[in-house]
Amino acid sequence: EPEVTQTPSHQVTQMGQEVILRCVPISNHLYFYWYRQILGQKVEFLVSFYNNEISEKSEIFDDQFSVERPDGSNFTLKIRSTKLEDSAMYFCASSEGAGRQETQYFGPGTRLLVL
Amino acid sequence: SQQGEEDPQALSIQEGENATMNCSYKTSINNLQWYRQNSGRGLVHLILIRSNEREKHSGRLRVTLDTSKKSSSLLITASRAADTASYFCATPINYGNNRLAFGKGNQVVVIP
């Protein structure tokens, strides 16, 4: 069964460093998303991406964050200068099409720890 | 506003028993989705129920939706140790395309 994959599974970085989290969405999906979950808290939406551009972003997704689809399969989240509060589990998701009836399929997550 | 807010329960049951958890939301929705998360792992989609549906089944899962009360329930029948996980409901935010708002999650422990 097709699934969303994410690398790395764990990432430890120093505050102020740049990190790139990678995702491979399900191959025929057109919509891509990033969410994050700070330990013990809710899963929070960061950004959605369609047709090579951001379709929506949350207030969390500030100038330190960027997303890119560098090729036909990868979808990346970059944090330019990490802060302690960026420590979280980051989930990538994808859905087949548009509209609010579409199921989003999530990857296993990347656990980011900023020291 | 908060959407997809579960009753923040930790539920501990014996294998074979049924587990029920609830979720409430505050605004109009097109659908409501339930996800499972095993400890420290990814989110697994369980079931999507549309706003015009009242009940939906998938294997041992039964989901109900009451749009008049803005609430949903997830029932797991004949629970197994492998059902031990956190369960989240999520709803699309009206003003977005597919932006999901998640509740805090219900932690379910099934004791073998």
Give the topology, please.
The complex is a heterodimer of chains A (115) and B (112).
Chain A: E1 5-7, E2 10-13, E3 19-24, E4 31-37, E5 43-50, E6 53-57, E7 65-68, E8 75-79, E9 88-95, E10 105-106, E11 110-114
Parallel strand pairs in A: 2-11
Antiparallel strand pairs in A: 1-3, 3-8, 4-5, 4-9, 5-6, 7-8, 9-10, 9-11
Chain B: E1 5-6, E2 10-14, E3 19-24, E4 31-37, E5 43-50, E6 55-58, E7 61-66, E8 71-76, E9 85-92, E10 100-102, E11 106-111
Parallel strand pairs in B: 2-11
Antiparallel strand pairs in B: 1-3, 3-8, 4-5, 4-9, 6-7, 7-8, 9-10, 9-11
Structure commentary:
- The complex is a heterodimer of chains A (115) and B (112).
- Chain A has one domain: Immunoglobulin-like (Sandwich).
- Chain A contains no helices and eleven strands.
- In chain A, strands 2, 4, 5, 6, 9, 10 and 11 form a seven-stranded mixed beta sheet that branches. A four-stranded antiparallel beta sheet of chain A has the order 1-3-8-7, with no helix packed on it.
- Chain A has 115 residues and is mainly β.
- The mean pLDDT of chain B is 87.
- Chain B is globular.
- Chain B is mostly beta strands and 112 residues long.
- Chain B has a single domain, classed as Sandwich (Immunoglobulin-like).
- In chain B, strands 2, 4, 5, 9, 10 and 11 form a six-stranded mixed beta sheet that branches.
- Chain B is built from no helices and eleven strands.
- At the A-B interface, strand 4, strand 5, strand 9 and strand 10 of A face strand 4, strand 5, strand 9 and strand 10 of B.
